[in-house]
Amino acid sequence: MKILYAGTPSVAVPSLAQLADRPDVEIVAVLTRTDAPVGRKKVLTPSPVAEEAARRGLPVLQANRVDAELTERIRGLGADIAAVVAYGALVPQAALDAVPHGWVNLHFSLLPQWRGAAPVQRALMAGDTLVGASTFLLEAGLDTGPVLGTMTDQVRPDDTAGTVLERLSRTAAPLLADSLRAVVDGSARPAPQRGDVTHAPKLTAEDGRVRWTDPAVAVAHRVRGATPEPGAWTRLDDRRLKLDRVVPRPDVRDLGPGRCVLRGDAVLVGTGSYAVQLTRVQPAGKKTMEATAWARGRSTEDEVVFQ
């Protein structure tokens, strides 16, 4: 089975690795986005998928959009089928038709829930307790194609979007491999998507801003969904303070929204219902630290109120 593999971020690496290790698979090329600036110095850096492909000696195509020229290159690769995991660009119909058995997408949601670029992040922000992954035949529409297979996973108490995506990227890799084989050998039974459709657009920095007038549970959901990217944050002294996971504290109900206090070994912040406890924070220009260490460093101040 000859496969064109398209993917970009680290969550797309486990599926590439598993496919490349299979004796019945030949990766004819890896399609990924072009090198992007990383870090404070904005150093141009290959994507995690590009780095994995280079490590394995696989040919790499770098492009941020699938245009007519790239489509012709894809047509000439001789791939039987294409696999997509978070490539980061839409694939037009001409390119879909350039591969005999089409393109199979591994998407980290239980379709038709959370179609779009940030399914896990949006699911956690909405308070979903069940997440998962789906494979489907790619169409020109956004995550609309018929489903080939699914797997589910429970959200754990300490989960963030980062931990869920990392876990799903590993546990769903066999689902993609099995779906690709089923399509090529003709045993696949694609089923139309059924149920309520929800959308998961890419998160912006503003999506990570905590609204302290929200109930404590909603605050906790927002923080876990925005962690690690784009990052959950609040404003203090006209500067951003990034927040790691927070813990609802229904036993503390005497703090107004945004009021932050240190009580014993707990840093507590009021919300629209009861308080939440901060775990770790990152002040602007500094490293992440324990919330208690940060709060004790500000112990001379009478009151801290987040905006």
Characterization of the model:
The radius of gyration is 22 Å and the shape is elongated. β6 (81-85), α4 and β7 form a beta-alpha-beta unit. α1 packs across α7 (173-185) and α5 (119-125) runs antiparallel to α8. The protein has helices at residues 13-21, 48-55, 68-75, 93-96, 119-125, 161-171, 173-185, 216-225, 291-297, and strands at residues 2-7, 26-32, 36-38, 43-45, 60-62, 81-85, 103-107, 130-137, 147-154, 232-236, 239-243, 246-249, 259-263, 266-269, 275-278, 280-283, 289-290, 304-305. The strands form four sheets. A seven-stranded mixed beta sheet has the order 5-2-1-6-7-8-9. A five-stranded antiparallel beta sheet has the order 12-15-14-13-18, with helices on one face. A four-stranded antiparallel beta sheet has the order 10-11-16-17. It contains nine helices and 18 strands. The chain is α+β, with helices and mostly antiparallel strands and 307 residues long. The N and C termini lie far apart (56 Å).
